[in-house]
Design goal:
Residues 90-102 have a biased composition (Low complexity). By secondary structure, this protein is of the alpha+beta class. 44% of the residues lie in helices and 13% in strands. It has 2 domains: 2-38; 42-200, no CATH class. The longest helix is centred in the N-terminal third of the chain and has 33 residues, at 2-34.
């Protein structure tokens, strides 16, 4: 019996070392060599400090910045670890709202977001884009649609004291098209756009 068991044990050990250790280390090394930025989280630095990741959304609430789409991620309640509290863009707990479109609470919270967005952007010229009032499936999406940017453009232009045409030109330079021309949708990375805003029109501290 031992003669039959020994090959199975040795094969299990060999495959564990090869696929459980060797392969991951090799892929990590190759990725770090060929794609160092992506392998380390697509981090964005300014003045030697990491300010975020191109893959993870951030919240912005000042009028001089474009705002991101909502996030439904949660985190542990500091007062009671058995409960959760809202923790937007929490990368350790990626999730959507999981609420049904027919849920009364969801409808009310979405309407509250619509009212808030309208109040923040009284000079908007188009209907409220859906991605400004609904969370993405992951809760971490760093992008919004061009329509979401256009909706907020009058507010940001006014807060920055710049012409809308100039601001629209900057937005166009930050826009991302479909991958390979066919995959996904046109989009704008909110963090990158807001960093470009501060570079082009610095705000007084």
């Amino acid at each position: 019996m031992f003669k039959q068991i020994l090959p199975a044990i040795l094969l299990t050990l060999l495959l564990s070392l090869l696929l459980g250790l060797g392969y991951p280390l090799a892929m990590t090394g190759i990725a770090g060599t060929l794609f160092p930025a992506q392998a380390h989280g697509s981090l964005i630095e300014r003045n030697g400090q990491v300010v975020g990741s191109a893959l993870i959304g951030q919240g912005f609430d000042k009028p001089e910045y474009f705002h991101s789409r909502p996030s439904a991620t949660t985190g542990a309640d500091p007062a009671d670890s058995t409960k959760t509290v809202p923790s937007p863009y929490n990368a350790s707990n990626s999730m959507g709202s999981n609420a049904s479109p027919s849920s009364k609470a969801y409808i009310e919270s979405t309407q509250a977001l619509v009212d808030q967005i309208k109040a923040e952007n009284p000079e908007a010229r188009i209907p409220v884009p859906v991605d400004l009032v609904t969370a993405s499936g992951s809760g971490l999406d760093p992008h919004v649609s061009p329509a979401a940017i256009e909706y907020q453009l009058p507010r940001v232009a006014k807060a920055r004291h710049v012409a809308e045409a100039e601001l629209r030109a900057l937005v166009a330079s930050q826009a991302e098209g479909r991958m390979l021309g066919i995959l996904g949708e046109a989009r704008v990375n909110v963090l990158k756009l807001n960093l470009a805003l501060d570079e082009r029109w610095p705000q007084a501290k």
